Amino acid sequence: MLFPVLLAGCGVNTIPTKQEKAKASWADVQSQYQRRADLVPNLVATVQGYAVQERTVLTQVTQARASATQVKVDASTVTDPAAFQRYQAAQNQLTGVLGRLLAISENYPDLKSNQNFLALQSQLEGTENRIAVARRDYNEAVRDYNTSLRTFPTIIWAKTAYSSATPMQLFQAAETSQAAPSVSFAPAPAANSAPAPRAPAQ
């Protein structure tokens, strides 16, 4: 009876415990991204009903959603830098085009007041917040787990009993989030507008 107690006191269970916590946090991230993907078709259909001329943005959103949902994700993704980067890049692409889709609603007052659009917009904003929280919790769990693989006394178990345990990948901020947004208050010139006629000389 004493030997198992001594093992537990030495941290033999620390690595698998932290590993499982990180995996659970990863599952939460995937769940929130899937929730967002499920909202996209209805959002696109609603916007299309009022702004069919915005077909470029609508197509980009549909394609980005397809890319994000087609990226293969399995248990090895969190320890594979290339696979993890593909997953994050696909999700970041969808985030960007969804932002543009919501931005064009400013040009369509009827769309902005549509109850279905308002409900979808609210759900999407709530989901984006949950994604941010899930990613933060995942990163914290992964940092804790990765640290246990490199620090005493758990590094002893990492080199022996759990030699197959490898560090997990962290979510990084998108490159576009590192730059301040460019804002211009100058009115856009009208397309194909002719110069105003000059007043006749007096």
TrEMBL record:
Q: Which Pfam families match?
A: LemA
Q: Where in the cell is it found?
A: Membrane
Asked whether the keyword Magnesium is assigned, the reply is no
Does the record carry Membrane as a key word? Answer: yes
Record keywords, A-Z: Membrane, Transmembrane, Transmembrane helix
Membrane topology annotation? Single-pass membrane protein
Sequence segments annotated as region (Disordered)? 182-202
Record's GO cellular component terms: membrane
| Family affiliation | Belongs to the LemA family.
Q: What is this protein called?
A: LemA protein
Provide the species name.
Answer: Brevundimonas mediterranea
